[in-house]
């Protein structure tokens, strides 16, 4: 047996790549057993229909399908939302957040079945290989890691299709499916095809979930979101699970074309890539949480939360979910989130979401102090002394420059 490997657990999706990986592993790691692991993180339900049968037909000895949806939203997405993380200012980290929970569950299956190794279908060009393997290392460093895309000589979609055809392994993939997509409960991404040239505008085929904003309803829709300790807990007055909240907001947001971005991002491995991302419910959630924060966080706390979000965006994107740094950042965000409780009314219209009403249990906003009308709580003459002290260093510097000039 190659490298003494007797049993491999493969992160299996049922797509073209992983369908080819199963027979490839059996051929190149002679005598090994391949166990397929499928993570249900909220992808299209049709992708899961018959996935176990498909894995067995490809040569897997077993197939485990694990429902991770609620855990994914509650334990991965919600914590990141509290930090306000946006990678490079716009990406809500849909793929990045899903990889550690998938890899963690894969490791758990590997340990359960007594596997020697784990395998994934991430390419040698992307970020996912880092995310998967960093998780494997953090949780079970004794497991060997197999990354077929870094080993085999199959270099194209055509080659993969031919490989399966020769072995009489059925697949629904075809040359016409030119886009690479990743879907979970939080988002769907689209890469490849016309998007490989940055001078090509995205066409209708590049968008899957959301209505084109120009075709969205001509009347705005209001949605009320309840927040408790930095977590969305209700939609339009109805308390729901984290997954329930997200699914409800996904439907509303998609209807109004909310949550579309078309970006070129810097991959961890050094190259740039272009993708169209759709995160309708997540965009609404982010707007709701930031709306409450505006009321309850003082200036320095808000600044600190923004710094946490920036740092967290890189930690999550780079696959360091199980690193001490992520836990430290999360602890700080959890502390700030304790006062982020309230209710927000958001207006959805033609691709936009805007918080138009907001209230919070511990709001620091005071109409008495903020009014432009007459008030009896703020003595404006006090501002002069504050400004004099605030600008004291500038005054001293200017006086010294004047003295030098004499």
From TrEMBL:
It is found in: Cytoplasm. L-aspartate binds at residues 123, 127-128. Keywords: Amino-acid biosynthesis, Arginine biosynthesis, ATP-binding, Cytoplasm, Ligase, Nucleotide-binding. The keyword Translocase does not apply. The keyword Membrane does not apply. PROSITE patterns: ARGININOSUCCIN_SYN_1, ARGININOSUCCIN_SYN_2. ATP binds at residues 11-19, 39, 121. GO terms for molecular function: argininosuccinate synthase activity; ATP binding. GO terms for cellular component: cytoplasm. Belongs to the argininosuccinate synthase family. Type 1 subfamily. Homotetramer. This is Argininosuccinate synthase. It comes from Providencia rustigianii DSM 4541. The lineage of its organism: Bacteria, Pseudomonadati, Pseudomonadota, Gammaproteobacteria, Enterobacterales.
């Amino acid at each position: 047996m190659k490298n003494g490997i007797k049993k491999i657990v493969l992160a299996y999706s049922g797509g073209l790549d992983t369908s080819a990986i199963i027979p490839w592993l059996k051929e190149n790691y002679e005598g090994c057993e391949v166990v397929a692991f499928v993570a249900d993180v909220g992808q299209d339900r049709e992708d899961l229909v018959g996935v176990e049968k498909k894995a067995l037909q490809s040569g897997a000895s077993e197939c485990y399908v694990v429902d991770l949806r609620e855990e994914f939203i509650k334990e991965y997405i919600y914590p990141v939302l509290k930090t306000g993380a946006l990678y490079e200012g716009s990406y809500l980290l849909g793929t990045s957040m899903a990889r550690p929970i998938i890899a963690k569950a894969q490791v758990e299956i590997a340990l359960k079945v007594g596997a020697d190794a784990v395998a994934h279908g991430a390419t040698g060009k992307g970020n996912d290989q880092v995310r998967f393997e960093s998780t494997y290392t953090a949780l079970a460093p004794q497991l060997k890691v197999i990354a077929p895309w870094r080993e085999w000589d199959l270099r194209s979609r055509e080659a993969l299709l031919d490989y399966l055809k020769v072995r009489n392994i059925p697949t629904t993939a075809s040359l016409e499916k030119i886009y690479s997509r990743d879907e979970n409960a939080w988002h769907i991404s689209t890469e490849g095809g016309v998007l490989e040239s940055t001078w090509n505008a995205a066409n209708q085929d590049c968008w899957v979930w959301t209505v084109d904003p120009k075709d969205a309803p001509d009347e705005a829709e209001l949605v009320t979101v309840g927040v408790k300790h930095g977590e969305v807990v209700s939609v339009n007055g109805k308390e729901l699970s984290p997954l329930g909240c997200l699914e409800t907001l996904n439907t509303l947001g998609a209807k109004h074309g909310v949550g579309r971005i078309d970006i070129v991002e810097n991959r961890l491995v050094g190259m740039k890539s272009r993708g169209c991302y759709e995160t309708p419910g997540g965009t609404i959630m982010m707007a709701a949480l930031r709306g409450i924060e505006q009321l309850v966080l003082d200036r320095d706390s808000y600044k600190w939360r923004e710094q946490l979000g920036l740092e967290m965006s890189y930690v999550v994107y780079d696959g360091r979910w199980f690193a001490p740094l992520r836990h430290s950042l999360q602890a700080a965000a959890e502390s700030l989130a304790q006062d982020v409780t309230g209710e927000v009314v958001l207006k959805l219209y033609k691709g936009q979401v805007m918080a138009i009403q907001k209230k919070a249990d511990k709001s620091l906003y005071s109409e008495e102090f903020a009014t432009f009308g007459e008030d009896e709580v703020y003595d404006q003459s006090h501002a002069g002394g504050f400004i004099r002290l605030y600008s004291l260093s500038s005054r001293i510097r200017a006086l010294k420059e004047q003295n030098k000039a004499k």
